[in-house]
Specification:
- The two termini are 29 Å apart.
- The strands form 3 sheets. This protein has a 7-stranded antiparallel sheet, with no helix packed on it. A 4-stranded antiparallel sheet has the order 5-6-7-8.
- It has a domain at 35-168.
- Strand 1 (65-70) and strand 2 form a beta hairpin.
- 30% of the residues are buried.
- The chain has helices at residues 2-25, 35-40, 96-107, 162-170, 172-176, 180-183, 186-215, 228-253, 267-273, 279-292, 328-335, 391-405, 415-456; strands at residues 65-70, 73-78, 81-84, 89-90, 113-117, 134-138, 146-150, 156-160, 298-301, 310-312, 315-317, 341-347, 365-370, 375-378, 385-389.
- The protein contains 13 helices and 15 strands.
């Protein structure tokens, strides 16, 4: 088929890039600063300079947030804004000196330089938009660490080493088509990935069709009628065709095109999370913590059943600063706000929708399964909803994650054995594509060579 042949060069090269980078992705993840890593790099909250909330109306509802230290002063992050609790005002843009101080505290060594950037390769996604611009701080250590500190909020937002950056260019960036020049335009990037995946699907389906009709086992006992490289392209294509189709289809579905497998906000979760805590009540609670001189790096505001509660470095406190751990009966009662429940309870092991792959997940968790099949996973320490899996989320788990990772066999869904098997399969599929690209290139060059002399004549 002419279309298969000519697509085989351009689209085949793209698929070959996906397979090669996919092998790297088995071992390399996109660099990021996890919440635990960011909290560990914070200084203890300086209560002596706390807690002026005059920028907030005492009757204003506070729906979550956190209190932390930033450059020797306490700050409150809530509602998409950061407040300086030593002055009561919205935090001014972070200075270079303050950014370098924050980076030094996080990394444990003095930085050598800092410059302001709006966006770069390591902060290209929309996840970082609320924190732009960034101070890009270079630490000057042997591993060439670079830390991005938000000039707007003061948060440590990204940290990479030289190895992280090199490996990202071999794995996540080519696999996800993440070069900054493309990824910064979300609409363009989305369309390139979707239509590139569709072209890959067409190439794979036509290849399987051509391979089957050329094989014709009911007419010929031979494995393949071809010779040379075409023989190996035919055999590897038959062996890896279905696998290639699986990966290409699941890669397309990762983009949730045209709303497929796209979960919508759950009104029940919004109702469950609704807070009645006011800025006035929060001010009183923080004063209580100040009076106790609580030793903590971070105090999170975690309303439960609408009422104020605090989480100080993982320990739950009431509004007076006293320990207030949640009991199973508290979680069971609060979960009623999520809707009709089929069953609920604490689980200490992973299930099909709450599981780790490259990184472990928090366990135990409180699992709530509604009568409509929707699942909610709650943090037993705070009562927060960690994840909601509705019908679309369950479809995404099986149609994208399961097909893309092939992690459906318990005990063989991660680790060295799984990675070795995936590497072999990726190399098999990649070999078929690589041979096909070379054959298509040779044939196209031959076709053009015949066409050009005719035109000259």
């Amino acid at each position: 088929m002419v279309a298969h042949r000519y697509l085989g060069v351009a689209v085949g090269l793209l698929m070959l890039l996906w397979f090669a980078s996919g092998v790297v992705m088995l071992f390399v993840r996109w660099p990021e600063v996890t919440p635990a890593e960011r909290t560990a790099g914070l200084a203890p909250i300086p209560w002596a300079r706390c807690c002026d909330l005059s920028a907030l109306d005492p009757a204003q509802v506070v729906d979550g947030g956190s209190v932390e230290a930033l450059a020797g002063r306490p700050v409150l992050r809530t509602g998409g804004e950061t407040y300086d609790l030593s002055t009561g005002q919205v935090l001014a843009p972070l200075s270079r000196a303050a950014a370098m101080q924050a980076a030094q505290l996080h990394a444990g060594r003095a930085p050598i330089s800092a410059r302001l950037v709006q966006r770069d390769q390591w902060t290209v996604t929309g996840y970082f938009n609320a924190r732009r611009p960034f101070w890009r701080v270079e630490m000057g250590d042997p591993v060439r660490t670079v830390i991005h500190v938000s000039a707007r909020t003061g948060e440590i937002s990204q940290a990479t080493t030289r190895n992280d950056r090199v490996l990202a260019w071999l794995g996540p960036i080519p696999h996800w088509l993440y070069p900054q020049v493309l990824r910064q335009d979300v609409r363009l990037w989305t369309q390139v990935v979707i239509w590139g995946s569709l072209a890959g699907l067409f190439l794979t389906v036509t290849g399987i069709y051509l391979g089957v009709i050329a094989w014709r086992p009911w007419r010929d006992a031979r494995l393949t009628p071809f010779r040379g490289l075409m023989k190996w392209h035919h055999l590897t294509g038959l062996a890896a065709g279905l696998l290639t189709l699986t990966w290409t289809l699941s890669g397309l579905l990762s983009m949730q095109p045209w709303g497929l497998l796209d979960s919508q906000p759950d009104p029940a979760v919004a109702s469950y999370r609704q807070s009645q805590t006011t800025a006035g009540e929060l001010s009183q609670a923080l004063q209580a913590l100040k009076a106790r001189d609580l030793k903590a790096r971070q105090v999170r505001i975690v309303p439960f059943e609408g009422r104020l509660a605090l989480l100080a470095d993982g320990a739950r406190l009431d509004a007076a600063g006293r320990p207030a751990p949640l009991a199973p009966s508290d979680l069971a009662r609060a979960a009623q706000a999520l809707g009709p429940i089929a069953r609920q309870g604490l689980i200490a092991t992973e299930d099909a929708y709450w599981y780790g792959h490259h990184e472990p997940v928090q366990l135990p968790v409180w699992r709530v399964i509604r009568t409509d099949g929707t699942r909610h996973y709650l943090d037993p320490a705070s009562g927060e909803v960690l994840r909601t899996v509705d019908a679309a989320g369950r479809g995404f788990r099986w149609w994208h994650l399961a097909l893309h990772r092939l992690d459906v066999v318990p005990g063989f869904d991660r680790g060295a054995g799984w990675a070795a098997a995936m590497t072999v399969l990726l190399l098999l599929a990649g070999a078929s594509v690589a041979i096909g690209v070379w054959l298509a290139f040779r044939r196209i060059r031959h076709d053009l060579g015949r066409l050009i002399p005719r035109r000259r004549a």
